[in-house]
Amino acid sequence: MPAIEIKHLLNNRLSDNDISLLLCVLYIPLGIIILSLRAILLLGLFLLAQILPDTKNVRKFISKLACLAVGITLQVENCKTKEAVNVYISNNLSIFDQLIISTATGSISPSARTTLERVLGLSSYCFTNIGNLDKFKSNVNKFIVENQTPLYFAPEGRPTNGKGLLKFKIYPFEFTSKIQPVCISIERPYLDISVTSIGSSYLSDILYFMFCPTTNYKLMFLPPIEKHDQTDEEFADVVRRQIANALKIEPTNYTSTDLAEWEKRKLAEDQVRAQGRNTTRAFNPEIQRMTVQVKEVLPHVPFNVIYIDLCEYRKLQVIPKFSS
């Protein structure tokens, strides 16, 4: 199997399929009504999160309300495989993965966004900023010793579209010698709208969750894995490959930093292209001749796209606007 390219790890928000786009347009009036009703429920959830104490039963209750408020349904496979471990590890597909894992396991997710995530019922706990890794590890170890609550980590570091697994961050594998992997898959019936996308924000992802009719999560618990004579890096790789094999996807060599850098470049390139297409400037005969030559080799690529790319490559500021 050829290695997956980094550009295949993120989707655009909407599908290019004409039928899917038409369904989205027709759904907009109903979607706005559903979003408004869920916003009211989310406001009530905000008030409850400020009033009720932060206990295990309250977290469980708020998590269920949060799932309802953002239109999430949950199906769990292999329930009998789930064990009482200190750490659960999963792939990362959306901003609400920790809400789903918390609902299924009662776990806590280390986070710095305590206010917003507690409002959304995401069962997070602030162990200090991850930038101060030594203090973070110390606080996590202390929490594990003093509490009977498991922890959940998504060591990819950021959501993808699930076509491949990013390299895992190592620190979640330093806290225990026994980890239970969990596989997450997501479906959105009726509407082909990605749960996250290129350039998406935390707020936009939440709004699309509330806009769509439903977002269906499926969890599959894998047998727990114990670390024997392995290093933390080797242990992380074993867990990652187990998740990748169960999901039938590829463990890639990309990190969350690599994906973030590619995303920045992609957004910048798209912006330049958009500006180029909307700008009428002087015509350059030399670039036109080169474009014709490239067009002969790549007949499926539009003429104006080739011209704009050549102008950018040559650092020219003369980009004409072509009519279709």
UniProtKB/TrEMBL annotation:
Alphabetical GO biological process terms: ERAD pathway
Transmembrane portions of the chain: 21-49
Main location class: membrane
UniProt keyword annotation of Transmembrane present: yes
SUPFAM superfamilies named in the record: Glycerol-3-phosphate (1)-acyltransferase
Keywords, in A-Z order: Membrane, Transmembrane, Transmembrane helix
Gene3D superfamilies (UniProt xref): DNA helicase RuvA subunit, C-terminal domain (1.10.8.10)
Record's keyword annotation contains Transcription: no
GO cellular component: endoplasmic reticulum membrane
Locations listed in the record: Membrane
PANTHER family per UniProt: ANCIENT UBIQUITOUS PROTEIN, LIPID DROPLET-REGULATING VLDL ASSEMBLY FACTOR AUP1
Protein's UniProt name: Uncharacterized protein
Natural source organism: Phaedon cochleariae
